[in-house]
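Exercise 7b. Backbone tokens:
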């Protein structure tokens, strides 16, 4: 009897949970227009036309006096933070801890729309090591806000979980 009530309660909770936000009156939101923001553009924000970025990625990390490694999956996320202009990702190269190229993630340039993002994934089975890294190159036709480029690592095994992130370091820049 208690199990039946528990199942009905659980079903009610699951049915009431919905990850899709409701839009009032079924209206589609209007397109975003950056000129409607209260804050105005100033010359104090750094604008650039391209960068070469370095991102560390830890596909496995040592533990227990370095005798064992904990394997991690990873991805880099490239966020175009410019409100009005697209950017082009021209290179996404993945290197192992010895600096050897493991994978070229792009066959051609990718255009990232304003406020959009792109992700590039490294599976947990990768053995590139604690010093693995990405080199990401991007360009724009006009000066834009710098994108936010991060690497996120995560590992889940048994009852253990590890996650952390790194932020890209600018190696070269076009102003």
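Sequence design result:
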């Amino acid at each position: 009897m208690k199990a039946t009530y528990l199942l009905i309660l659980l079903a009610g909770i699951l049915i009431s949970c919905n990850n899709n936000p409701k839009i009032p009156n079924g209206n589609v939101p209007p397109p975003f227009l950056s000129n409607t923001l209260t804050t105005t553009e100033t010359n104090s924000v750094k604008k650039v036309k391209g960068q070469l970025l370095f991102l560390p990625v830890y596909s496995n990390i040592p533990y227990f006096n370095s005798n064992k490694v904990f394997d991690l999956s990873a991805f880099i996320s490239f966020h175009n933070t410019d409100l009005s202009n697209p950017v082009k990702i021209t290179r996404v190269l993945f290197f192992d801890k010895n600096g050897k190229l493991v994978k070229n993630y792009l066959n051609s340039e990718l255009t990232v729309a304003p406020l959009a993002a792109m992700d590039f994934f490294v599976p947990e089975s990768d053995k590139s090591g604690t010093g693995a890294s990405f080199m990401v190159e991007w360009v724009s036709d006009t000066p834009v806000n710098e994108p936010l480029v991060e690497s996120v690592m995560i590992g889940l095994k048994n009852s253990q979980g590890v996650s952390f992130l790194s932020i890209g370091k600018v190696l070269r820049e076009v102003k």
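Instructor comment: The mean pLDDT is 85. The first strand starts at residue 47 and ends at 56.
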